[in-house]
Amino acid sequence: MQLHQIQPKTPQKKARYVGRGGKRGKTAGRGTKGQKARAGAKFRPEIRDFIKRLPKLRGRGKNSNKGFKIGPKVVNLNDIEAMFKAGDVVNPKSLVLAGLVKRDAGELPRVKILGTGEVSKKFSFEDCVVSESAKEKITKAGGTIK
Questions:
Q1: What residue ranges of the chain have pLDDT lower than 70?
Q2: Per the domain annotation, does 8 fall within a domain?
Q3: Do 76 and 116 meet the contact criterion of CB atoms below 8 Å apart?
Q4: Most exposed among 15, 72, 93, 101, judged by the fewest C-beta atoms under 10 Å?
């Protein structure tokens, strides 16, 4: 066998030219007239029409136009009563160490003290927002708020 005797396993078939006359005739298998019958016809995906109809805030969920501001962490007086001794200073750092609040992205959180529960020990509160009912109970027990 020599090089000029080598033949391919399957014969090569030429691709049929569509719309150039020949055996296909008239519409050349493309249906009737219109955009689809033309060369280079491109169609915008149908889903794009539905996406455009949706509101501009799509993807944010239902009723999610709320503010992004993060409020203070809430701690009740009965939790402070259980975790701290008399005379202790209660501030965001001590509350994080006690495990009553968690840090916000590595930073100390803002804390609000609420008046749920009773207080019998003296505490001094620093850098905390205190509700009116909690303020009454703390001052009644002899504690201070700075």
A1: 16-26, 55-67
A2: no
A3: yes
A4: 15
